[in-house]
Design goal:
A: Rossmann fold; four-stranded antiparallel beta sheet; B: mainly alpha; MetI-like fold; 11 helices
Amino acid sequence: MNIMTPVKPPMPARAKSLSVEGLSKSYCNINVLSDLNLRVEPGEVISIVGPSGAGKTTLLRCLSGLMPPTSGGVKVGDEQVREPVAEIGLVFQDYRGSMLPWMRAVENVAFPLQGKGVPKAERLARAHACLADVGLPGVGERYPWQMSGGMQQRVAIARAIAYDAHILLMDEPFGSLDAQTRFDLEDLVLSLRKQLAISIVVVTHDIDEAVYLADRVIVLSGHPATVIDNVDIELGANRDQITTKADPRFAQYRSRILEQIRRPPAA
Amino acid sequence: MRYVFVDIFIDLLRSIWLPACLVLLWLYASSGSTSIYFPPLADIVATLVGEIVHGDLVRHLLLSLSNLAVGMAFAIVFGVACGLVIGRAETWRRIWSPTLNFLRAVPPAAIVPIIIIALGVGAAPKIFVIALGSFWPILLNTIDGVRGTSTALIETARAYRIPSFLFIFRVALPAALPQIMAGIRVALAVGLVLMVISEFFGAEAGIGFYITDASTRFAIQETWAGTLLVGAMGYVLSSLFLQLERRLLFWYFQEDGQAATKRKGRRNKVGGGQ
């Protein structure tokens, strides 16, 4: 894939920013999102939190190009996103539904590469390597329904990485997993961002998760939803489920965000 | 491995005891029969064996089955192909839906005479009749199956920019396969009926011809023997098909076994009036 230079550059040259400019979305005359502006720098991890029904998923669908905005736009680098683009990999909340049950895990991971025209041997090799990267070495021959939820979501992440996405969009990715599995997968996300220098946008309702994963947390609220806060999380690059979450700063971020979310919407 | 065979044997016993009892009952009840229309079962079976060994019953049967195979092959290819196209395009479906629903309501057997008159004798009209009758259940089930592809899968394919040809063959087709197979199963039954009926008219060979020919010659035992053979054939074919279905749809039945992933049940478009 990439030619590895002796000194690993901090960021691959191809990395692009993701920016949202004046994005609004309404369904049947109900405004869900109103004039949203945000920017994700290359290599940055941001979390988007907000009360349920705030339009987080709608925003993510607009970001991915699956849904056209009513006005405003989304850009990857300088290019307007109108349809799903090759730079973005998507990880859905519904991991079961997003896996093809008639394909083995490795085939599921390799499938988008077939669409890109990558030769079979190469795409399978890449899929196996990516499965190993997400902590699933040697299970590529299993079918999704022979795997636990956590494993299936790892396969979904492997698929996004194999696709060579430099922006990973995750929609409530660990919402339906048990706590321990969720922690493992959060740590997986942190280690991947270090290894691959990709940008990650995580939509979540779990504030702890949002703070733990992100360089920056964006708080959405109101009807229609707007960005009400933009919290820089300065907890360093090396985070740990126990010490980081016990850090007093972690608690401060957490309560700051929680306060925003629970605050009754301004009249 | 040994236990697998024991399991198969127990399964077999479980499914076969009732048919076995019924056959025994028939054998017993008919044993003293003097009616020329309902000869003793033992005599029918003896005739059947004799015809298979000495007569050319096997030749008739093979001829019919080859018509069935070719007809079904046409029906599957065209039914699935048209179904994939119509099922994916909403406008096409809306245009075609009333016509298709009318056409499928025409009993396939009713068109046999006109087709035989129009296309004459030989294998072609019989194949055509079988293909035409089997086409509808396959087409309608394919349309239904394609339309039932889950939104999650469609969105995943869109997000990963899967090109349409790949989407059709690796996503839409497998997703619709449980419905398609259900359609083919119904089509097989329809095809079997048409295989026999199509040989009632303007035929010189085939199992249907054998049965009508025997009945017009008043050879009641031969008529019965042919009928029994067709019945047994139908049973064997549908059992084989069920095996094939289990094998091809392993993921569907596996997945169905998990309580959490119950998908919507397969429905047969044909048979149930709406």
